[in-house]
Write the structure tokens for this entry.
Amino acid sequence: MTPLGIFIEQFLQSLTAGFFVGSVYGLMCVGLGLIFGVMRVINFAQGDFLMLGMYATLYAVVFLGLAAIFGPAVAPLLGSILAGLVVFAGGVLLHRALISRVTGTQAVGREGEGHYAQLILTLGIALVLENGGLILFGSTPQSVRTPLAIRAFEVPLLYDPRAALFLNQQRIVVCVVSFIVGAALYWFINRSRIGKTLRAAADNPEAAIYMGIDVDRAHRLAFGIGSGITALAGGLVATYNPFQPYVGLQFVIIMYAGVVLGGMGSLLGAFWGGMTIGLVQQLSTLVLPTQLQNAAIFAVFLLVVMVRPQGLFGRATERI
Amino acid sequence: MGASPSVYRTLLMIALVALAWIGLGMAVSNSYYQLMLTVVPIWAVLGLSWNILSGYSGLVSFGHASFFGIGAYTVTIALVQFDITPWFGIPLGMIAGAIAAVVIGYPTFRLRGHYFALSMLAYPLALLYVFQWLGYQEVTLPMKREAAAWFMQFADYRVYLVLAVALMVAAQVISLGIERSRFGMSLLAIKQNEPAAEAAGIDTLAWKMRAIMLSGAVAAAAGGLYAVVLLVVTPDDVFGLLTSSQALIVTLFGGVGTLWGPVIGSAVLIPLSKILQGELGDLLPGIQGVVLGIAIIFVILLAPEGIYWRIRDRLRRTQPLREAEDAQPLAQPTYTSMRPANASADGPLLAVDDVSRSFGGLRAVEGVSFDVREGELLGIIGPNGAGKTTLFNLLNGFLAPDRGRVVFAGHDLTGLKPNRVCRLGIGRTFQVVRSFQRMSVLQNVVVGAYVHAPSDIAAYAAAREALASVNLLHRMDAIAQGLTTKELRLMELARALAGRPRLLLMDEPLAGLGAPEVEEMLEVVRGLTQDRVTVVVIEHTMRAMVRLVDRFVVLNHGSVLAEGAPADITGNSSVIEAYLGTKWATLRVDA
């Protein structure tokens, strides 16, 4: 094969890998983006919801016997959805018990100071979840097994008989599910009645209150759904990414980078922001040493934000 | 404000706390606890550095590990590769930290709020991977047998403790200096309302840059000492997310915006987590994190603003009301002419020449030209949406015009930032009052006085004068949050006047006022022109304005519709048409 042929093969391989991983990054960013967009709260525990989603998926597959009933290929998917529901419920409870005390109508009139309380509260929750996870689940890395993870489609490249793309089957499944869930959520937020109350509460909480919208309830829902979506994405990732209780740290950064990149407050932006992160991460390996793959993410992130402070999909909202 | 008794009291407290901490360290013989007691002041210093930027200015940084790590690695690499002692390495690290702060701060300050906070997160993480890639995974500081003290290596751990406490004292004194000067007041104004601070002549970018440089240097010093004490540096340890969040946690827990917050937070949380780890870590790994997390959650639900503020509020309530700390004898109001001696006699004070600005497809201001003459009272009127506020934003620099020029007393204002415009002598008030809500009336006005005041004392004197000229001196100690609309408008006016403007732009000063209050406000504005300030007032109602102004400029759909004396304008049929529609205009002409 010519050097060009090799490069094209590698490029296409990285591009597809970036697209697949980017789609699930996009989904987790959507979860965070929903919470941020509606509540304007920076939630440091989001990575730990993802971690909980991974463990919930694992236990659903192994101990609930999903694998035995539905087969090893389908079980992780069902497990992820179940994990999403469990963490949704957990998120709603957590909001009711703790988060609502420093956000929403409680934070009105507190200006900057309310802000600080939210930050440190979610930092405290993150500490408890990470370390509680360590106690409950142990520090041994785990993974959710599926036979699809070691199977790949081989796609011949027409320009050279020896060139081919290998497309991991599980990653394709994860990608498809991410798009479906993302689209469903998009429909829900933009079309359904509940979605409209969420958007109203996000747009102008005060006006929403006067219109009879229960803003705290809207926040609770957004927090629950956002946590659940991220957990579901975690369950999907768990099939090819080994994890331990501290895995959240690694992903929370990717999520925030994606959400800011896409433009805070825009769900579509969050998804494409996450996708951008995935693509940059994979494509950067073509020109940079693997160790700098993550440094490349942050460099691109900073570059985009400096050039377009409102993010790729955000609107400039500054007014005087 | 100059050194007041409370400054000495705080300095005394700082010294006492430092001595007590050193005393505690001397009493402890267990080396594990000695290390713990040494690390507490280091984290306190990192917290203090975070507080210098984020606590005072409100720009939350999630990336202080950048500076901490740069300090740690500067000291380490200087020692390992160049044999430079940490005694020089730490100052070198501080310089590197300040330089990094410039490189990071300058572009990142373009971002606001959450965008700023989260972008700061990216820097230490990018640095983390770069240092890993450079091969600095784990660097150990070499032991120096001879001349150990020269290389800051001591057999007795308590020497490190003293060094760490000394650094903490230095950081606290720096913080005190900021809190009690126009530096701190400017940062506080930025925190509470950045556009208002900018319009009041505060060069917000310059102050933010100074804050982040100082903050970066202090954080780097903490990182440098940390490397010396622990003798081993890894990228994860010094650039990691946990280090950045540690800075936040100790400060938010202890109290934001005070030099005691990080110290309290660090003194409580660090020992708590270390002791838990030491006692329970083997039995149940992770239990210390759980307990620490729960402790943070509980404290923050009980004291959302941090422990220090809660304790202080409690003490204040039980104590009999103390006099305001810096009460000075009232200056006799001697509000004199603000017009400089070299005022140009002829030509307009302000010349607006063919200025245009559009937002997307909307032409908010289109080809507007008019002059403002020295000493006159000009009214700009027009229906809602006529472009009046946009015009003011163009005049004072919040917006740059797409086309056209604004010349003020011979200076071209095009492209100048609001604080520069303010410095040249244009003050402004806002349609919706922009106050610094948690500051007192006097402090609100002082912020506006810094522009030309050579010293803090002069600034306070100018602020009192300005308050006297709007009849608000009796309310100077009230907190802005509790003022009535009229008082807020007067306070904002005083803030603009404290900068001694030649030209004052007032955006709907009568909005939200009742009839008697309108009269009062009109009286104050008339008084201004007697002090020979030139005033331009925006209003959309004509009634009160007719009795106030010398001349009108009427805007409609972003363009000048008419210009002239009040009597001419009220009879102008196109003006009536713009306000009331064609029908009224024809009726009027018929009549």
